[in-house]
Amino acid sequence: MIAERSRLAPILLLFFAAAVAAQDFPPDQQPPQPAEVPQAADPAPAPRPRRPAPPPAPPPLSIPPWPVESVGPPILLAAGDPASDAFIGPPLVPPFRILDSEVLPGASARLEWNASQSFSGGEVVSPVVVVHGLRPGPVLCLTAGVHGDELNGVEIVRRITNEVDPKQLGGTIVAVPIVNLFGFSRNSRYLPDRRDLNRYFPGSRYGSIASRIASSFFENVVRHCDSLVDFHTGSFDRSNLPQVRADLARPQVQEFTRGFGATTVLHSPGTRGMLRTAATLSGVPSVTFEVGGPGELQPVEIAHGVQAIHTLLHKLGMSRNLPVWSEPQPYYYESSWVRSDAGGVLLSEVTLGQRVERGELLGKVIDPIHNLERELRSPVVGRVIGMARNQVVLPGFAAYHVGEETSASDAMHKAEAGQTPAPPVEEDAPPDEEHAPGDELLPPDPEDEFEAD
Length: 453
Description:
- This protein folds into two domains: about 90-330 and about 425-453, Zn peptidases (Aminopeptidase, 3-Layer(aba) Sandwich); about 335-405, CATH 2.40.50.100.
- The protein has eight helices and 18 strands.
- It is about 20% helix and about 25% strand.
- Helix 5 (about 250-255) links the parallel strand 8 (about 240-245) and strand 9 (about 265).
- The protein is α+β, with helices and mostly antiparallel strands.
- Strands 8-9-11-18-16 form a five-stranded mixed beta barrel. Strands 15-14-12-17 form a four-stranded antiparallel beta sheet, with no helix packed on it. A two-stranded antiparallel ribbon has the order 1-2.
């Protein structure tokens, strides 16, 4: 009985709970409802960006009927005009004009200069090689063969024009390897009438053949240049150490001589009628470059000359390549010629370029007839910058040229102060004493031709 009641108790409990849940309460006895929690309002949407209004349509182009001659190119701004000071682009190089021809930038050209006429009336034409660079720069003139038997300069000028690349060059090279074609064709220093061309510059259109050739060359070539190097050698069986001769009393010429590397520089005012003297007086700073001896090609001297000109091109800002020299550039101001006091056979004991002490033996003059020897000694401490080859000599023959070394500043100071070298010698004067009408009357040479370029 008790066990039955314990089994029925859970069932009754469930029945009673279901009845209570289903009871319908009156409205006033409804159980309290939970308070509603207010919800946050949704944020207002962000305003959409407005698109910019489209630009107004351009007015229609009014194209006049073609052709219209009054319509030209647009106005050129100063910044884009190469001729304007406000131009901001790279500098443009115009063509180089000479001898009625034009050479474009970055190009080389072989032109012709009509020097004169031959005996048969034909034209005597010398080559003029122009190398015109892509970059602006000075105009350098290189001349050789003013004396027809001086060959080293001819080869130096030829090599320079072949080695220089116009596309890498700044400025212009005007090269004339043979000025005196008459003398070159005869292996002679002189013109056919025995005149020395290097005594007649700037020349005259109405003078002798020497004066007319000098005038033509000066007007048609030299006046187009900014500076000039005239190549020469020793003369009459004499040889010169590579050396630059210049009038150091002129500031522009002084500065010009600094560009030749380790090349001897000798102060020499020059004489009237020389190419370098006439060119300098006309505003073209000029020097004479002596290198070696006449009548032959000397490889060592030629190589020195080529290296010196490449160094000069770098100094002038025309080339980016700078050759390397093993020693600084020396300057010589005073020089002395040692002469033979007797005739005989000259035998040298020194070599060209050798440094000597005062009283040092330079050579001997041997008289084979009377079996006598006479010594020639150096009067100064210096260097042999010129000397004669071993040969038969007469009394008074200039055998050795000895230069006394000095500093560049001292040499220029003495030159500017008017202290000129010792009076030069007067042998080997031009053989012609007659002057054609129109020639400038030239005094006898105040120095040897081998010493006076």
